[in-house]
Amino acid sequence: MNAAGPDAYAVPPDTYAAPQGAYAVPAHLPLGTPGFIGRARELSALDGLFAGLRAQSSDSVAAVISGTAGVGRTALAVHWARQVRPAFPDGQLYVNLRGFDPGGTPLVPERALRGFLTELGLPEAHDLRDKLRSRGIRRHTF
């Protein structure tokens, strides 16, 4: 846990209420790395981005964690994401794109998106390719 403490990311009850409905809230974050240590500077930078986002009431922010294979980018991202999980009561999605997986091929973006949409309760996500292709054709013909 970083210096901010476990309650630093709690969402004030009058700020946001989780959506009500008959769907399961996705919680896909993998388990954290046992014995995760260090990276205080990087965790602080991510905390700063997140605090700025909340202070501005902005809808989105992107953070890029860069480095060569095996340096712990995913471990850092997952560790931080697990810390801020309470701020996202409507769920968290995770996908391994297998970019550096020596035993497999990288996951194509379409499959990752289809998995997210299916998990979020969109039953028509299975024919995503056809729908996107037909929308693209319609845009080009008008």
Q: Please report which band the strand proportion falls in: under 5%, 5-15%, 15-25%, 25-35%, 35-45% or over 45%.
A: under 5%
Low-confidence stretches: 9-18
**Helical percentage:** 25-40%
Q: What spatial form do the alpha-carbon principal axes imply?
A: globular
What distance lies between the first and last C-alpha atoms, to the nearest angstrom?
Answer: 54 Å
Count of DSSP strands? 0
Q: Order of SSEs, N→C?
A: HHHH
How many domain modules?
A: 2
Tally of DSSP helical segments? 4
Average of per-residue pLDDT values: 76
Structural class: mainly alpha
CA gyration radius, whole angstroms? 18 Å
Largest sheet: none
Could you characterize what this model shows?
The chain has helices at 40-56, 73-83, 109-119, 128-141. The protein is mainly alpha-helical and 142 residues long. It folds into two domains: 1-13 and 26-89, no CATH class; 95-142, no CATH class. The radius of gyration is 18 Å and the shape is globular. Mean pLDDT is 76; it is low at 9-18.
Write the layout of secondary structure elements.
Elements: H1 40-56, H2 73-83, H3 109-119, H4 128-141
Concise account of the structure shown:
The chain is mainly alpha-helical and 142 residues long. The chain contains four helices and no strands. The protein is 37% helix and 0% strand.
Key traits:
mainly alpha, 2 domains, 4 helices, globular, 142 residues, single chain
